[in-house]
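Re: that chain you flagged

S.,

Sorry for the slow reply, it's been a week of failed gels. I finally had a moment to sit down with the sequence you sent. For the record, here it is as I used it:
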Amino acid sequence: MRSIDTASPSHFTITNEEILVKKLLQTHAPDGRDFNPEALLYAAELLMSQAMTPSDAKSDSCKLKLESINKDESVTIHKISHEMLYNCSTDGDGPHSTTMDIFESLERYSWGAKMVLVIAAFALSYGEFSLIIKYYPSNLLASSMAFLKRLSPNLLEEIKESKHRVKASRALAKEMVEVTKCILDCERYPVQYVSMDYNAMLEVKNRIRITAYWVIRTAVRCAAQLTDLMVNSMQKLLRKQLKVFHQLIDEPLMVVLDTEGRVISMNAIDMVMVWGASAYPFSTVNEEQLWRGESWTLKLLMGGIDPVVTQWVEEGRNICLYGSINIEWIREFTGVVRDITTKAGVQLELLYVGSNSREHTGHILATITREKLSSYLSHTNMIFFWSRLESIKNSKLRLYNGVETDAIIEEVTSLLTDDFNKENWILISEGSSMDMLRLHGREAIGRFTSFQVWGDGIEKVGILNAIRGAYDTPVIVEHYSGSKIVAYVDYKSKEEIVCERCKRLMQKCVLYQCYQKGE
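Prediction finished late last night. Pasting the structure tokens below so you have them in one place:
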């Protein structure tokens, strides 16, 4: 409900009135156009009086001949009506600002004509409002109007609860009409026959201007009250509909249509989260094509969320993501890694990515920052990171109809499951390599603690394969023999190659092959 407008004529001092009159005169430039305000006021008064009559009241039928309204005045009335409705629904800059805007739009009319046009605009809104509440729900027309305006089915009960506001608006409407009639009478009286001195005449004119201001401002406030009743009714219905909708679906949707209105994606939110604008036009076909070009890499996992991490990936650095809500494990793990990287001169970037349980990450993030344990994602980027994982999983499952046969789905699901179960985990990668190593809490600390076991292999195969090779037993169901031919560069080359299948060092052999074809 709106607060009461404390600004009233009784609060205005002489100085304030003088300032107001000057501002009003700046918006006043009548051109003497042919216009019959009395007839329009009569029509507005009749409209409001009939609207105020109870639906069961009996009245003598009568035929009325109303003069037709000029097109300019008709357009002006509708414009003012919409302006009052817009400013009331948005609160604008207050009733004074709306009132002055109306004065500017009516600069070509006399003071009385301005008042009549505004009252007619208010009567238009009031009449429509009254017709609905007067005949709703028994009348089909009133019910249809209420439906189109999205009003609540309990409209009558809500109006009864605010009957004092409706009654006050009716009383003010009657007073506005009576005051306007007086102003029209004053303007119609020939000035040359008035025996007043200059100061007295100036005072009368100023009274007319001030009165016009307050009548129009009152109409604006009355329109605001009616708008509140309508909007409150719509809001209650909307809240009810939203509540029902949220019971049906608890996740947001982004349905995409093509230029011809055909659905090309039932939900493009996951595409937006994974690829952003590059997924345009967000069709299912485009989604499939994008996934064909993706592999399980840190680039896919992070997606450019943090520019620093993106630079690490591009530079091919050793990166270790870790997630946990156990600050003691975090202290122990980061301490072990820091000791090893310092003593052995090994480069490994640690990055805390938090948890999907946001309520647990606040104090942990503060501790990591205060104790300088490692690098970390900001709170906002953590939300993006975990939302991205969910989107990757949802997108892949939707394309594969829920069948988890994809390596990306398996890895993402494992990370989400670990986080859901509140497990500590790490994920090591070398830049944008498709080879990544995921370990759990105590196992991760144990691997790094036994650095002496695998440390010597870092120079040959890198930290990731050194850790894996020292502990993992290759799982090969049957005998396997593989080879990889590379160009001969230097007999003394120390380059080591890791088997893509078992992740062990491959034995170096020299192969001499003749390419000369026989005759």
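What I noticed first: Residues 294-471 form a domain with the Glutaredoxin fold (CATH 3.40.30).

Talk soon,
D.
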